[in-house]
Structure formats: C-alpha cells, structure tokens
Amino acid sequence: MLNIITKEVPINEELQTRIQFICDFSNVKPTFINGSIRRVEKTNINYIEPNKIIINGTTFLAFNNSKDVYVENLQKRINISDLQEYIKNL
Q1: pTM
Q2: Is the residue at 73 inside a domain?
Q3: Residue 25, domain member (yes or no)
C-alpha cells in the first residue's frame, strides 16, 4: 500500500507582502492558501503543490522564491510585476 505524506509549506512572507501590496493598490482583497509537498513514502516521488492566491474569483498559483505567477493552471505564466495590470483587466 502506498503511504502519502503531506507537509504544508507556508507562503513566503516576502511573496505574500508583495502580492498584498499589489492588491491593496488595485483595491481588491486576495485570499491566500498555503501550498504543500506530497511525498510517496519509500520512493523518490515528490509533488510540490503551489500556493494559491484567489483574486476576484481567479486563482493564481505561485511558488515560493519565484518571480512569476500562473493563472488558473501552469500553462499561462505572468511576471509578478505585471500582476496589477492583469487584475485591472479582469
């Protein structure tokens, strides 16, 4: 039987502060959900679940120490510095 170990990884404080500042400037309220690391015991298989930021019903995915955020899934990537412009267009 496979045993999956899940460990929550809190969002990086610097990343959260940066996104909070962008959202305050854009007059929207973000919701932060911490990511996690899932590891299959006795194997080298790991899955890193990104942190989720929900803004105006749109989910953004962000990894700690990254300068990019992903919109809804890992296919569309935008730079954090472009996030404010993206939020205005929602």
Answers
A1: 0.89
A2: yes
A3: yes
Instruction: Please name the residues in contact with 83: beta carbons below 8 A apart, sequence gap of 6 or more.
Output: 19, 22, 60, 69
Do the domain assignments include residue 45?
no
Q: Is the sign of the CA dihedral 79, 25, 55, 7 positive or negative?
A: positive
- The answer to whether 51 and 63 have CB atoms below 8 angstroms apart is yes
70 within domain boundaries? yes
pLDDT in tens, 40-57: 999 999 999 999 999 999
65 — alpha (psi -120 to 50), left (phi > 0) or beta? Answer: left
Look at residue 90 in the predicted model and tell me its pLDDT: 82
CA 77-25-53 angle, to 5 degrees, is 40
Per the structure, the count of domains in the chain is 1
Domain that holds residue 69: 12-35+50-88
